[in-house]
Automatic annotation (TrEMBL), chains A, B, C, D:
Pathway where it operates: Purine metabolism; IMP biosynthesis via de novo pathway; formate from 10-formyl-5,6,7,8-tetrahydrofolate: step 1/1
ACT domain residues: 21-105
UniProt-listed Gene3D superfamilies: 3.30.70.260, Formyl transferase, N-terminal domain
Protein name stated in the entry: Formyltetrahydrofolate deformylase
Keyword annotations: Hydrolase, One-carbon metabolism, Purine biosynthesis
Pfam families reported for this sequence: ACT, Formyl_trans_N
UniProt catalytic activity: (6R)-10-formyltetrahydrofolate + H2O = (6S)-5,6,7,8-tetrahydrofolate + formate + H(+)
Enzyme kind, highest EC tier: hydrolase
Similarity section: Belongs to the PurU family.
Organism: Bacillus badius
Active site residues per record: 244
Amino acid sequence: METNVKTTPFMQEKGETNRGRLLVKCPDRPGIVAAISKFLSDFQANIIESSQYSSDPEGGTFFIRIEFDCPSLEEKKAALEADFQALAQEFTMDYQFTYTEDRKRTAIFVSKEPHCLLELLWEWQSGDLPTDIALVISNHEEARGMVESLGIPFCYIPANKDIRKQVEQEQIALLKEHQIDLIVLARYMQILTPDFVSEFPNQIINIHHSFLPAFIGARPYERAYGRGVKLIGATSHYVTNDLDEGPIIEQDIERVNHRDHVADLKKIGRSIERRVLARAVKWHLEDRVIVHENKTIVFQ
Amino acid sequence: METNVKTTPFMQEKGETNRGRLLVKCPDRPGIVAAISKFLSDFQANIIESSQYSSDPEGGTFFIRIEFDCPSLEEKKAALEADFQALAQEFTMDYQFTYTEDRKRTAIFVSKEPHCLLELLWEWQSGDLPTDIALVISNHEEARGMVESLGIPFCYIPANKDIRKQVEQEQIALLKEHQIDLIVLARYMQILTPDFVSEFPNQIINIHHSFLPAFIGARPYERAYGRGVKLIGATSHYVTNDLDEGPIIEQDIERVNHRDHVADLKKIGRSIERRVLARAVKWHLEDRVIVHENKTIVFQ
Amino acid sequence: METNVKTTPFMQEKGETNRGRLLVKCPDRPGIVAAISKFLSDFQANIIESSQYSSDPEGGTFFIRIEFDCPSLEEKKAALEADFQALAQEFTMDYQFTYTEDRKRTAIFVSKEPHCLLELLWEWQSGDLPTDIALVISNHEEARGMVESLGIPFCYIPANKDIRKQVEQEQIALLKEHQIDLIVLARYMQILTPDFVSEFPNQIINIHHSFLPAFIGARPYERAYGRGVKLIGATSHYVTNDLDEGPIIEQDIERVNHRDHVADLKKIGRSIERRVLARAVKWHLEDRVIVHENKTIVFQ
Amino acid sequence: METNVKTTPFMQEKGETNRGRLLVKCPDRPGIVAAISKFLSDFQANIIESSQYSSDPEGGTFFIRIEFDCPSLEEKKAALEADFQALAQEFTMDYQFTYTEDRKRTAIFVSKEPHCLLELLWEWQSGDLPTDIALVISNHEEARGMVESLGIPFCYIPANKDIRKQVEQEQIALLKEHQIDLIVLARYMQILTPDFVSEFPNQIINIHHSFLPAFIGARPYERAYGRGVKLIGATSHYVTNDLDEGPIIEQDIERVNHRDHVADLKKIGRSIERRVLARAVKWHLEDRVIVHENKTIVFQ
């Protein structure tokens, strides 16, 4: 966790500079795959990975994620995107091109408990999170040393219910200034207002410390203890304006028993939270998650 | 599943005829283990397995399950139980002696879906459920052939909301007549009335097809699909008069994804239900489950 | 498990009569997906599911499995296959069309322990194994009643080392006569000779009762007990002439501890074997498994 | 991971100063539990947790671990241990008293890969590893910054095959000087000689990056990839003079598939190694592991 620990920048891996991704959502009908793959083939793009899903082969919605390798991608980008418009129109597509060279910029929000932040920093240092961590924002000072030792700016913004509006304005200004693409709530214990959330649709990932929809809201471990469950879990989801009701990206659980008191559940829970959040963030960064209605399609 | 498949009767295993179990619940204080183990030692009983739990070492409730081997147990039973009363009084114990030779008598309730019933019959035939399956009760005829081919009485009792009272009286009469110790609801899709439940406290085990407390009530797979969860589960619990709120014995889950429609969730769910119910029933039959308030202590 | 239990024939599900699958293996190069999807599109075939894998984007082997829905498939089959030859030649493809209407014909081999056979029959009756179980062959009589009660022919062929050659000739004759596509060794405790194996390349699936490559060969549970492992497992693989060395299709494990003696490991192991074999067989029947060198690509 | 992150010293938890543990191994016979529990009761020690195991109720070896709370334990220790000798002699016991106040002193050995070291430091900082980490020894300099920032001495001792003898003498001297009770090989990539190992019997814990006994020896991930396994694992075990053959404490696995190349297996493997090693070390520190022949009894 020291600056002398060499990081493995994701982008330096062989061939990544010519790597792109195309995400498409459109009404299902025959011929979509043929059209897209011919289009890419005409640009000499080689399909590396392709995943598709149809909500219902007869009249549902079709989703596809294609990862491709294209020589001289940098020079072809403009033409690629321009030419795709006709095809998109023909099939009424929602679509998005992304390029691994253009790393997403992430801000992490944290309160007192550092375990989720630490896991993300750890994964990032190991080269497993393809992003620039541009900023850590906290309503506590605890994590400053660790964050700054990695060369990441740390912004201390005290927060409470009474000054929420003003705090969020300050946060939004910072996020805009740093051109943030993704906000990760790594156990940030403040509620976000609809105004804040609407600024970043499907761009805020939270970790909730229960297997939703069980134990929505506060103090889930205490309530899990009270109910005598034999499994506890964690859920990572996009933030919407319905508390803990946003589209679920990933969940996991561990087994507990009658010997585990609330403190034990929290301890076990921390390790679930760490891995569930890290997976969800990784999949988002690799453009593997498509939100559809209130669910996610995750192309692992 | 034919009568010519040889069953392995649990009781014929070596030494089991002298095997007993003692379950104790009492206020915690020093000296309980010493007193009990001295008592058993004085009867030449050798402790084979012992598990204990204290809800709080300072002033909580103490629980212990002891499995012991005692030569000539049959002849000593009466003296053992009589002499224990003094000790029990001294420590204000709730307690219970059971003997593996006295197999519990089980009734299984089932509706149309046979998978949980089949799993229990399978485990029982393999010698893994130490019980006499005395009776299968169903509001459908589907399972009759399979049940009767194993030499188990099958009782068809049509049921619906309007005749619930009368149906339950008939069921209770049958259960009493067959001296039933345990009722397993193996996907029995009728609600039991408080009158029925109060006849069999902590003697009715149900399987609910969700990881409670998520999706209490009807159609949990449909609701899991609607919420877009990434895990589905099943829960086995004792039946109380609060729907799906009784003490949980066992839970388990499996991973699902966006490709899994309701029919897939049901299919995956069936295999979870089978193993969760089988484990809970087995633990109950081996006297490994103690109910305390609305939770279970399970001494695996 | 009685004949009066209604089976759910897989093929009667809506739309299945027009469902086909294409499996392709060829040298990787740009344009394969475009060519195949255009080809299918020209036949009005709608791609329902598509999975691909490239062993190395630069110069490796490319694999794709496409499931498609094609109106009037029965009438178009001949043209589809004939026309595909040109494309296959251009890309040097190994390929195979299969149709869900043409159910594979399966023979199950079993010895004394019935649990794997029972699981397969159970899954088959539930409609989860899309195959015709044409034959059960055993060197013991135990399973006859159960098998015949389902209307499946049961062939008792006693076997031992000394008459192996003659036994296998009899078995091969039966398998040819019944036009068997898949042989499942559901705990069949006889070794097959190279002559037998070479008759059915990548068509024989075995279940080995350890997580290979640990405990290759005989008595794996005894050896797992001796080593004091904390996990035991099972492995389903295609049979080759190297004992327990064929391509692995699926593996799973369960946790054990010091209390579990050999008999316990066997009991726990049975439930792992059941589910591992059932999954492997299902994936094979759905054409989800491609063998490449000594490994499998499984498009789940 | 900075010095300003407050650590939660395990010992400051309420009541721990009077907490002791007794581990016993002896020939099984009736009356052992009675004798021990009476002995503890006579010292006013309250049994908090008790776990026992008998390798064979008729003539096997009996094992028990008792955790007890005893007022004024510090003053009674000497008498407790002196008086127990008579009882130990009567039952031919191997036994050991430990006290949570006397924290074990741990040395961690590491080479280049820091993930296991980091996990142990993380758990230790969270108060989950009840030990004093007295020393980190490495044959590389990479981890120095991180270790020293936590106030732990870091000893760089270059090592290779040719100077093994001299390196180990230096290490042993350091370990003796620091009064080390436990050595953790957290991916230390040097082989230890029998002389070194014999100095610390059952005091050296290693993490091997496969599910032993599969892939004993070097390059297990490469060999797992070559074999095409569908699960990879890690194993924590005590070090003996037979390479990777020592008593296994803990194992775990994760699922992999054909898409995972060697680099992916290593990445996934790192997270298995982290948690398997952390669990094994924790159980050892809590005196939950008893070595018997070449196996472990783990009283979780």
